[in-house]
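Q: Hi! First time asking for a complex rather than a single chain. Here are the components, and I think there are two in total. Is that enough to go on?
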Amino acid sequence: MLSIKNLHAQVDGKQILNGIELEVKPGEVHAIMGPNGSGKSTLANVLAGRDNYTVTDGELIYEGKNLRELAPEERAREGVFLAFQYPVEIPGVSNIYLLKAALNAQRKHRGEQELDAIDFIALVKEKMKLVEMKEELLYRSVNEGFSGGEKKRNEILQMMVLEPKLAILDETDSGLDIDALKVVAQGVNSLRSKEHAVILVTHYQRLLDYIVPDYVHVLAQGKIVKSGGRELALDLEKRGYGWIDQPDNAKSATVGAGS
Amino acid sequence: MSSNTLDLDTLIRRDYAAGFVTDMDADTVPPGLSEDVIRLISAKKNEPQFLLEWRLKAYRHWLSMETPQWAQVHYPPIDYQAISYYSAPKRKGDGPSSLDEVDPKLIETYNKLGIPLQEQEMLAGVAVDAVFDSVSVATTFKDKLAKMGIIFCSFSEAVREHPDLVEQYLGSVVPPGDNFYAALNSAVFTDGSFVYIPRGVRCPMELSTYFRINASNTGQFERTLIIADEASHVSYLEGCTAPMRDENQLHAAVVELVALKDAQIKYSTVQNWYPGDEEGRGGIYNFVTKRGACRGDNAKISWTQVETGSAITWKYPSVLLEGDNSVGEFYSVALTNNRQQADTGTKMIHIGKNTSSTIISKGISAGRGQNAYRGLVKVLKGAENARNYTQCDSLLMGDRCGAHTFPYIEVRNRSAQVEHEATTSKIGDDQLFYCRQRGLSEEDAVSMIVNGFCKQVFNVLPMEFAVEAQKLLDISLEGAVG
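A: Yes, that's all I need. Here is the structure of the assembled complex.
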């Protein structure tokens, strides 16, 4: 589904990613871990196509398409979803309006009929139950005045309504209490199937107690320095990031999981 | 990051759909302003003596006045002798007595603008007066309205047919010497719309005037007078367009509203005069005086305006709250893109007891546009329990535009409650990326964010205008954000 080869990227002219290799197949859940500043969030934003995140070298192939040639909205319509680390507030635009516009833009792209208001509301209400979100938040302006936890739940709700093929969660667990964390996990797990893949960017292994990943990758200085299964995350929990070899003397560690 | 990011330079070139010129034979007075020109205009219109004297008095006063300098707008001095003060499409005889006699070119012009003058094709529920350069060329549904006692006609016709009403109310809200441009208008105004709603009548349809400037080097000075007699009710719409020309053209109109006891007037404007090009060449100078008087208890006047056009806009639709319990409202969206400048707002003058006013102003600045809100809330000594609520929001796009707020509050009565809220926000790259990441195109994202910002104003616009206003904003903002 997603093939990343030798990915180099800059943010505002600063080199952050230095040759990422990663293969993600349908149905897989990959966790990307690593210390602060290792390039985790950069990777997430590069995949979504954010401005000022410039790919300088390497390949990004998604479903046979060169992602580098697609605008952010085109990537979204092809099924790439990013749950933001810091969801943005949009005054005057109701949450439900944005969600409906987004879903219908994606359906239109797929050649499907746009959902009318009644079918749409029914769909949203069904998904809302899973994320335990208050209904009034639907009619408030996007993220305006939402608590940290409400914003993250809202991201998960959007993900569940849009049902992306590839969901990228950028530190969605940060700042969440255990109840909210479970809700997020529930949402992600409900998306898990043979068709959908998930990339979890996270600093802590805590989330992985609830979303069990197929693969765990450790990022350091813009490269994947170690890959393994679920147990790698537990090791990191116990021993921190210090014991991981630095990229220069750990070339063998870049063997892409799942390849 | 993506290789096909939209080329903003091509997008920012707004598509001004109303920019065409109609090739008409016109009866145009040579440029220049003098008492003789005023006498000529008055003679061409067969005006009664009182009106000629009124004009001349205004002109003499205007000569003693100076151009107002306090507004946050910049433009070279206007040569008032270089402007032609009268231009009318040539017609045979005394002018059309019915639509069949209107020059087909004119009908076509309005059709192109999306304003059908054939009554059978009209949007149900809207009567139209079309003003082309200096004269009114057609008024629809006149006869039907007349059966209810409603007068809806061109100003010239009102002068001929209802001189007593004109004499009684003309200049009663905006005196001829009120300000520089109002004085100029009073001296040389050529046509406009006149409305009278009799006592107790609720006007069954929206009344509207479409103003069109066509001739070059011509100023447009129209005059609108709306009188709502006791317990009557009217909703009036005004739209404006002009061809794209490299030189600036002056539009100095005066609108006077009179709402008597228990009457209500709602006045909506979608102003789309040619704004000039990206470099600021051409465009209309829109220097307009609009004022309403709530001249009886429980009267209500609402101004709603969506301003997307003009090179420079200078206008402050105001309400004099004379009657007890009278209500004034001002809802405004003003957009400036490229080199446009706007200095606009309102004045709410509380005179009667228990009067209340609401001001919702939304300014949007893009490109190198400069947008100023200027408002006055004045509570006089006798205005017990006056209330005002003002909300003044600015939205900025890019980093070369400006937003300015000049609220003036003068309160002379301790029982008054006056609230003022103001915000300034910016459409951020973060907001755009967020929407695009959910699958919306960049234009749809901008449009959604701007419409969200303007929602409070669009909600009070009449239906047809709300749709038009949203479309206009979308066109005016194409590619305004990077």
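A: The radius of gyration of chain B is 22 Å. Let me know if you'd like any chain examined more closely.
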